[in-house]
Amino acid sequence: MVPPKVFVIGGTGAQSIPTIRGLVKDNAYTCRVLTRDVNSSRAQQLLALGNVELRTGTFASEKDLRSGFRGCEYACINIDGFNAGEKMEMFWAMRAYEVALEEGVKFFVYGNLDYGYKLGGYDPQYRCGHYDGKGRMGEWILRQNEDNDRQMGAALFTT
């Protein structure tokens, strides 16, 4: 039996490497990992696990997203909002969710952070762009899923 395939964005990051390690253990899943550099030491670490396919690209390309999601049953998306910026994370998280729906992904997991600004009563002292961008998108994804849950399930992985 062929294991189900998971498309992973952010796979070479500190949080996703252990996730991929767990997914491919015992041949439970295969992972298609989007990376800017397939020759990086972290990408090669993942490849050595087995059941890992590396794809050169960026989360900020609809073409790369579409190609990555195509043929995958699941998605694990963790955009580096700290480096990408709040606006870019928000836009591309939305597009990733939408393209995953279009490509027939069954379940979408989004790497999320608490929406601290909202939780702090919108007090400016709690404003933190990369947290707030992820928190907004997490809420947005769950809200979208109220309408789309028959087509694709979704969950947040909040650290």
Give descriptors for this structure.
single chain; 159 residues; alpha/beta; six-stranded parallel β-sheet; NAD(P)-bd_dom_sf; NmrA-like_oxidored
SS-based class: alpha/beta
Average pLDDT level: 95
- Radius of gyration over alpha carbons? 15 Å
H/E order of the elements? EHEHEHEHHEHHE
Beta-strand percentage range: 15-25%
Distance between the termini: 33 Å
Q: Which strand order do you get reading across the main beta sheet?
A: 3-2-1-4-5-6
Characterize the largest beta sheet: strand count, sense, and whether it forms a barrel. 6 strands, parallel
Question: Helical residue percent?
Answer: 40-55%
Quantity of strands, as a count:
6
Count of DSSP-assigned helices: 7
Low-confidence stretches: none
Global shape: globular
Protein name: NmrA-like domain-containing protein
Family: Belongs to the NmrA-type oxidoreductase family.
Domain NmrA-like: 5-113
Keywords: NADP
Question: What is the topological layout?
Answer:
Elements: E1 5-9, H1 16-24, E2 30-35, H2 41-48, E3 52-56, H3 62-69, E4 74-77, H4 81-84, H5 86-102, E5 107-112, H6 116-119, H7 129-148, E6 153-158
Parallel strand pairs: 1-2, 1-4, 2-3, 4-5, 5-6
Organism: Zasmidium cellare
Keywords: NADP
Pfam family, one: NmrA
Short description:
The protein has 159 residues and is an alpha/beta fold. The protein is built from 7 helices and 6 strands, in the order E-H-E-H-E-H-E-H-H-E-H-H-E. A 6-stranded parallel beta sheet has the order 3-2-1-4-5-6, sandwiched between helices.
